[in-house]
Specification:
Layout: H1 5-8, E1 10-17, E2 20-26, H2 34-45, E3 65-70, E4 79-86, E5 93-94, H3 100-112, E6 128-135, E7 141-149, E8 152-153, E9 171-176, E10 194-196, E11 199-205, E12 209-214, H4 226-230, H5 233-249, E13 262-267, E14 275-280, H6 291-301, H7 307-311, E15 321-325, E16 328-338, E17 344-353, E18 355-363
Parallel strand pairs: 2-3, 4-6, 12-13, 14-15
Antiparallel strand pairs: 1-2, 1-18, 3-4, 4-5, 6-7, 7-8, 7-9, 9-17, 10-11, 11-12, 13-14, 15-16, 16-17
Bound molecules: (1E)-4-oxobut-1-ene-1,2,4-tricarboxylic acid.
Length: 367
Amino acid sequence: MSGNSAVDGVAVMLMRGGTSKGLVLDGADVPADPDERDDLLLRLMGSPDERQIDGLGGAHPLTSKVAIVSVDGTDGADLDYLFLQVSVDEALVSDRQNCGNMLAAVAPFAFERRLLDPSTFPRSHDGLARVGIRLRNTGGTATATVRLDGDRVVYDGDAVVAGVPGAGAPIRLDFDDVAGSSCGALLPTGNVVDTIDGIEVTLIDNGMPVVVMRADAMGVVGTESPVELETDTGLRHRLESIRLAAGPIMGLGDVAEATVPKLTMVSPPTGSGALSTRTFIPHRCHQAIGVLGAVSVATAARLPGSPAAQVARSTDPGDTVLLEHPTGGFEAAITVSFDEDGRPVAERSGIIRTARKLMDGVAFPRP
Ligand code: NQM
């Protein structure tokens, strides 16, 4: 990476991954130095500015995301994926969380840009390629199953993701070794239930650190719209107080400027799901729910006595867990076993997303 990026531009692909949208870049096109990299990303996205008017960001945390994809440093996988959350209205870029939604865009990007050669990459007789991806932010790996046709990625299909209009080709994401990836253990305090500010919570990390609590304990129903919840300043203060106390005991240290842990309020299902969710990420309320956030909350629902299990409709341990969220439902296949001391062990988890290439070109960052 050399030259003047403001004049020469930077090669970027704009992609939707699941219910998120962001820029995907080849690691070779990004400065190796983290400070220079973050400065470039802020200028590309137009942060800090609540409208990101002078950049490519979408003025919401779910559309202010960057994925950096490399074939170096893969540690035995096919690809290395570094996720960066670019704050909208602050000059902050955080590498402290994964993003399972943008993860869905990683393998398609690598085939599009020929970081992986689609003509020689192994595939099943019906065109399914299994791509191993190292999750650089937290460790752990994911396998993305993507359909190829000749040397092209197939985006069309009939998989529907709640919160995304239309349908697309399913991209299956299977996660391995993500339990405790940020906090060191699935249950960082060793407890299924802890109490913070008088509220019973489960502090859990099955790929995403999340504080799970009952909506009624927070004084809400749990089926309100994101706007209603975001404009409830009392609720937001109570949530932030819990989050700041949860960070250190989850092993995350001071989380005042971090985008983790997330906060999920759970309530009984209103439809055919196992439970209803409203998630703060951590200051805006998600229109749906994050991927690894959902995996972590679904895992909490499998722990007897937890706030999530208290409100959940009981599901067969072999079934997927359907989480209701503001724009529909999210289905996660979760396997939890219990060791001889009764401690929960998270096995594999799998989910379906779709992704789409929206634009490929040269972006000109603010000088
Ligand atoms: O939990 C939002 C999203 C995410 C993260 C967030 C995600 C995940 O919806 O894996 O996907 O929690 O900040 O993209």
